[in-house]
Amino acid sequence: MRAMGERVVARAVDHLAGIAEAPIRGDMDVAALCRSLREPAPEQGTDLEPLLDHLFDDLVPRSFTTTGPGYLAFIPGGGVYPAALADFIADTANRYTGVWVGAPALVQLESNVLDWLRDWMQFPETTRGLLTTGGSMAMFNAIVCARERHLGTDIRPGTLYVSTQAHHCIVKAAKLAGIAADRVRSIPVDAEYRMRIDALAAAVAEDRAAGLRPFLVASSAGTTNTGAVDDLGAVADLAARESLWHHVDGAYGAFFHMVPELRPLLAGLPRADSLTLDPHKGMFLPYGTGALLVRDGRALHAVHSSTAGYLPENQDEFYDPAQYGPELSRGFPGLRVWMAVKLFGAAKYRAAVAEKRELAVWAAEQVSRIPGIVMDAWPQLSLFAFHLEGPGLESQDARNAAARALMERVTSRGKVMLTGAMVEGRYLGRVCILSFRSRRSIVETCVQHLAEESAAILAEYASRGPREGVLADPRTDGET
Ligand SMILES: *Cc1c(COP(=O)(O)O)cnc(C)c1O
Questions:
Q1: How close is the Cα of 395 to the center of ligand 1, in Å?
Q2: pLDDT tens digits along 372-415
Q3: From edge to edge, which strands make up the β-sheet containing 245-250?
Q4: How far is the CA of 396 from the centre of ligand 1 (A)?
Q5: What residue's CA is closest to ligand 1, atom 2?
């Protein structure tokens, strides 16, 4: 066991030591490899060493280098090393944390983690939470809570409201929760891509007049496309007036609320009925770490509480995961969050999150000065969006192609990965800074590569004259 563990740690650490120099997007022309990997379950086992070689040499590199400092695409993730060690401990100890009685002291650590999230988000004592595998599952559980509370068994008339910029997981979660797509209303946004409150009010009124039952509005604390933060206070006011459940999707943005000086950017967030957080984004933890907070913890309990003849009687002094979430047997996600916060401390987390915003503000300022770049969204948190204009770029198609080419060419240089997004028919370039490994020097490289590639693209369009066709062959579109 010791020798195997040492081999794995050595390979993992060597791998991490090389990620800053690794291409930011590996060779993704990989379909033939995928086909060649298909095989029946092996009858006989293999040695560890060739398996590690195969994984680290052949497979891991052929992906987006999401752990690299230059990963400024989509919403960057994390992967702090101590979290992997916590998973190792959780998996080797393999205690049963699905029900409180199986490992009360370990479950208490997860309960502490949920209390820490509650404190950072300034939710009240009545709050209960759940660690999930990601933001999508948090959203799903939130919709079920709202549905049970507001609709009971009469689901079909219930209507749900999101902005046109909301994350697509909401429509999917709604469907899983029994709310069909024809009951999901897409509310238009203002010039800063925030949900229009007047349009929301009108849509709610229209549905009520039609005999439907508006029950939930999901606002965004940072959209994936442009980083827009809805007016959370105004949505909360409307939700209170209309007796709607107000869910805030903070999968990207919630952790900026840890930093007291940044709280005004998310004003109104603590008033939500429920909140999605994604510790695998803003807390730099490995993928598979999401969270949900529900202000009236009884709503979360009402949906999930259950028992069986073979289980001991439920107690209610201590947090019990199976009473607040859909799973019974499960891993122990609480340990990786607990270990990271205990080892680093909350102050270091606040400083790191604040640094991401400072870097984004600085980068946006620099990028806005690049000739031909027009800003579409300044960083409300740590994400900004823009497009190119210039001679030859009069049509929307040409502008879309130029912005796509810009993202692709910067990425092809190997240091920085960028992805854009289609936003209301316009393709926008974007930069999102959220990895704990992204520091000032890589952001400088990003600005430099954007400047050089913009100049080259503008020159090509200018020399071709107007109405010329598409430039590059984009490999990564920004549909997130
Ligand atoms: C990432 C993200 C989600 C989805 O979360 P997953 O953890 O990928 O399931 C939802 N909303 C926003 C704003 C996000 O950034």
A1: 32
A2: 999 999 999 999 999 999 999 999 999 999 999 999 999 999 99
A3: 128-132, 290-294, 274-277, 245-250, 213-220, 158-163, 184-187
A4: 29
A5: 251
